[in-house]
Amino acid sequence: MPVVTELQQGDSSASRLELYALALGEWRESPWTGSGYLTFAHALERARADVPSYGLEQITWFVHNDYLQTLQELGPLGLAAILALVLAPQLKARAGLPVLAEREGVIALAACAGMASMAVHAMVDFPFYVPACLLAFGGLLGALDRVLGTAERNAEAPSGAQALRVSYLRSGAALMIVLACLQPLVSELSAAWARRELAQARPQTALYWLEVARRFQPRDWRYHWYLGQFWQGQAIAGRKPDAARFAVMAFDAGSAANPLEVRNLIGKLATHRVARGLLDPVPVTVRLDWLQAALSRAPLSGEVRLEQVLTLADLGHAERARELAAGWLREAPYDPRPRRLTRMLERGTSG
Q1: Domain that holds residue 91
Q2: pLDDT one-digit tens code per residue, 54-89
């Protein structure tokens, strides 16, 4: 069994403090509404220099404190909701335990202990963002509700009409939950099947399933990005203007779906670079504006820095591109990308 040293514990604590400080700073930017669900990873990319423990490439979607992350992403109302989720069952159990039989009391105590342990763990980690942990919490909450509420439900049994309305409401809620879970599942399976079809050299079938994935989840940037990559590959392989245009449209749709995510913007920049002659010319200033927008979202990202050097070289700023590649190589001497860029620029090519 691996032993965690005091130095590693200290590094972990320092890293969490950096993440906490970043989350608090983000929350202060939008103290009432929060910055939006699962936006912490984008905040980390923008301010990676303030979290040196994560270096240039490490990424996390989580603050490692669910209460602080909920405040940062969803504001005070979100924090109040998660606090109610963890405190209300404990308060209800405290009031109901004295009247329970021994067996029900043991079940209630066990359920409370399990939920309390997860609530405490959430102060230094992210269990409420892990589906398996949420499932376990829901199971414990259901067990507690069952033992605490049986007597109340028996004493106040609803009439036939009331029971029918409750049944309808439960069926409607269950249907909404199923539909909400079904859409992302269909998109994930469709995208996976599209990758399989591409591996089997069946691009038409792959395109069909990529479109299915995108249409089921149009607000998820990833499926637009997958489609943009597909069309970009088709444009490069076949020198097809329509494919290049479709790639740019897909990347634009991805950026609209999530303006904080940088990969679709990088995809558009790369398409205008590698599909030169297939697209209508874009002014140099516009491409530089796109590049600046990408740098503002993720200034230390390797993908952004790679595209920055390649785009500058493509636009005729070879000297500046060489300077950036050399600086990146000094910062990350073991990263093969700046080394390849340096050799490529020395040969006078731009990718």
Answers
A1: 6-154
A2: 988 888 999 999 999 999 999 999 999 999 999 999
